[in-house]
Design brief:
single chain; 5 domains; six-stranded antiparallel barrel; four-stranded antiparallel β-sheet; 20 helices
Length: 704
């Protein structure tokens, strides 16, 4: 026999044992590589080939299987199995060829220092302990947790906790703000760390309970965020799907059990750090478990539970391969065979799962990129954000497009290709065609000259000279008040002035009065100043208009002899021929508008007619404080604002004031009218708009 055709022997430390049935019901087997602790699932065909591997050549194996089984295989099929074994180092490599093969594998795994740093920055796994001996020694003490009695007790705790919680629900809710204090955040960190450690030991003890090894436990860093892990690869030994599901669910069961017990304990504890820690376990543990651990789109417990439930090992890679095949067929119609066969309903479900995972990961990694950007100083933050976007989003898309390019010679003009070209054309048009934009600005329409009249001094109404709707002249008297206390103070002040003047007149008669003359002059000046202030206050009791216009609003009722405190709102006067629209544009839309742009003002009241307007001015600096509160979010408006201690309203994002006027000659509204101005912006493509918004941010932040 030709030595070149001989099959290399399998490694002696490999073990082969039956696996779980495949999705189609066919038997499977599992190869365990003890040296690397890796498991490989094979089907009946591969099992038959390996069972006769000792025959030494592909020809001998095919001849024997053709004579004794229903398999119709070729030498190429056996060689494919050999390539799989060689790629995963499951065969013995000896001699020069074996050495060369190992060197090639080693060189292929070598990466540059920069790429190594990026890869380990994104994800690194650090085993901390090898707990197998400890788990064997302590398993007997925790095995009772898998008993029906333990499950009944946990359920009883959950029900009791919910009943007790109802009676202290308000106290429970008011405990949340404490978690955001320094001490609360420390308790959060310690409590979550403890819960996650118990979570991982739940997986570990479940593995030991079913006879599996736990080679390591440790921490993995996903973009520098620590995530505990337990090496559960030995569960591939288990044929029972139920056992694998229990192992996958053990950590979640531990967390939910802790939450149930903590809810009961919290109801009886006194206030303090211990109760706060128990509160955290009772309130947030089960939420985090359901939202994170049961998430099937990332490789957490939920993913492995879904994989075992569907009985599809390596679920994501197989679903991704199926989705890529479907995408290529839809776009180009290659007429390739599916990567593997699944029933129609299951195949559609896997494709949907793959697409959903891609969408979820897109937004997840985009969020991680933004988080990384804000965690570091700006230049490094931008670099790391670009790394995140490139590695997780751009590279997978690039690799798929690269495969399309490699297979460009296989593309034919068919309905799929024509549809794809049409779709690309529409996408490019949508991205680069300069579309007209419509910019919406929250705005108010009011009189440019508008005065709100208030009572400046406390006083009693003696006369009301005007009524709502009257045409008012500048400095016209609107209302008259009197203040008996002020009148009495004026009379007393005049008496004191007269008395001091009398004493000054007698200074030449008495030496003592002569000595007191400087003091008397000082007292006289002080009293005259105080008297002038009183007389000014008395004048302020005469309420006058500072502008000419129409009295559009008057506080009702205003009765004679009614007492008005200082600062009481009385009336609003506007000049109706001076209407002005005041609007605010957000910074990202600032480049879309210019002075002279026209648009329409749409009042919030849909029964009112829109008004055509023209922009007359745009502020060059952003607005620090909103003078008129009508548009503030604190008053129900559209501009997100926060109120400072002095009562001023500050926008959360940069905004710029825009002034506009009606094109037609219209009177100003009697009251402030809220609405939106919609302006035609400059024609720009979506790509240009995005570039104009993103590029300045990168340039500005990188220069800091």
């Amino acid at each position: 026999m030709n030595q070149a055709n001989l099959l290399p022997p399998l490694r002696e430390e490999l073990s082969l044992f039956p696996g779980a049935s495949a999705a189609d019901g066919s038997p499977t087997w599992v190869i365990h590589d003890l040296a690397s602790n890796r498991f490989f699932t094979i089907g009946w065909f591969e099992f038959q080939v390996l069972s006769h591997w000792h025959r030494g050549s592909a020809e001998a194996i095919t001849t024997h299987l053709a004579a004794n089984t229903t398999l119709m295989i070729t030498v190429e099929d056996v060689e494919q199995v050999g390539k799989f074994l060689s790629a995963h180092n499951l065969i013995q490599l000896t001699g020069q060829r074996g050495t060369e093969h190992l060197l090639q594998q080693h060189q292929a795994r070598q990466v540059g220092k920069f790429k190594w740093l990026l890869k380990n920055y994104l994800f690194v796994r650090v085993p901390l302990i090898h707990p197998d001996y400890f788990l064997d020694a302590t398993l007997a003490y925790v095995r009772w947790l898998w008993s029906p009695i333990a499950l009944i007790l946990i359920c009883m705790c959950a029900v009791s906790g919910l009943i007790l919680l109802q009676s202290q629900w308000e106290t429970f809710l008011t405990s949340f703000p404490y978690m955001f204090t320094l001490q609360g955040m420390l308790i959060v960190g310690i409590s979550l760390a403890g819960v996650k450690v118990l979570h991982e030991f739940g997986h570990a003890y479940a593995l030991k309970n079913f006879g599996c090894r736990v080679p390591s436990m440790g921490v993995a860093f996903l973009v520098m965020w620590p995530v505990l892990f337990t090496d559960a690869s030995d569960s591939w030994r288990l044929v029972s799907r139920r056992q694998r599901l229990l192992i996958g669910a053990a950590g979640i069961f531990v967390e939910l059990s802790l939450a149930a017990i903590a809810t009961v304990v919290w109801s009886f504890l006194a206030d303090g750090p211990i109760r706060s820690a128990v509160f955290l376990i009772a309130s947030t543990t089960w939420i985090a478990t359901l939202l994170i651990n049961l998430n099937p789109f990332m490789r957490f417990d939920g993913y492995y539970l879904m994989s075992d439930w569907l009985e599809i090992p390596n679920l994501q890679n197989r679903a991704f391969a199926l989705a890529r095949w479907r995408l290529r067929e839809w776009l180009f119609g290659f007429n390739d065979e599916a990567p593997e066969y699944f029933p129609k309903l299951r195949s559609q479900g896997l494709i949907f799962y793959a697409y959903a995972t891609w969408v979820y990961r897109f937004f997840l990694f985009l969020g991680i990129a933004l988080l990384v950007y804000f965690l570091f100083f700006k230049a490094l933050g931008i670099f790391l954000m670009l790394v995140e976007l490139t590695w997780f989003i751009v590279m997978p898309i690039f690799n798929e497009v690269k495969q399309w390019w490699v297979r460009r010679n296989e593309m034919q003009i068919n309905k799929q290709v024509r549809r794809t070209l049409l779709l690309v054309l529409f996408l490019l048009m949508g991205l680069f065609y300069p579309w007209d934009s419509l910019v919406s600005l929250p705005s108010i329409w009011r009189a440019e000259q508008q005065v709100q009249v208030y009572s400046l001094q406390a006083g009693q109404i003696t006369h009301v000279y005007s009524k709502q709707g009257d045409v008012i002249e500048a400095d016209q008297l609107l209302l008259e008040q009197r203040s008996p206390d002020l009148e009495y103070a004026i009379i007393q002040g005049q008496h004191r002035i007269d008395d001091i003047n009398h004493q000054i007149a007698l200074r030449g008669i008495s030496p003592e009065m002569q000595k007191r003359a400087p003091i008397l002059w000082h007292e006289l000046e002080a009293e005259r100043a105080a008297q002038r202030a009183r007389l000014q206050q008395q004048q302020e009791l005469m309420i006058r208009s500072s502008i000419s216009g129409t009295l559009v609003e008057l506080m009702q009722p205003l009765e004679i002899d009614e007492w008005l405190p200082a600062g009481t709102y009385l009336a609003t006067i506007i000049a109706p021929d001076s209407g002005l629209l005041e609007a605010y544009v957000f910074e990202q839309d600032l480049l879309e508008i210019a002075v002279g742009a026209t648009g329409w003002f749409y009042p919030n009241d849909s029964l009112l007619t829109p008004i055509k307007v023209s922009v007359v001015a745009i502020d060059s600096a952003s607005t620090r404080n909103l003078v008129d509160p009508y548009l503030a979010s604190t008053q129900g408006g559209e501009i997100a604002t926060r109120q400072s201690q002095d009562g001023s309203l500050s926008p959360d994002t940069p905004i710029y004031r825009v002034l506009a006027r009606p094109i037609e000659d219209l009177d100003a509204p009697a009251q402030v009218m809220l609405g939106n101005i919609r302006l035609e912006g400059e024609s720009r493509s979506i790509f240009e708009r995005l570039l104009l918004k993103v590029l300045p941010v990168f340039i500005y932040e990188s220069s800091l």
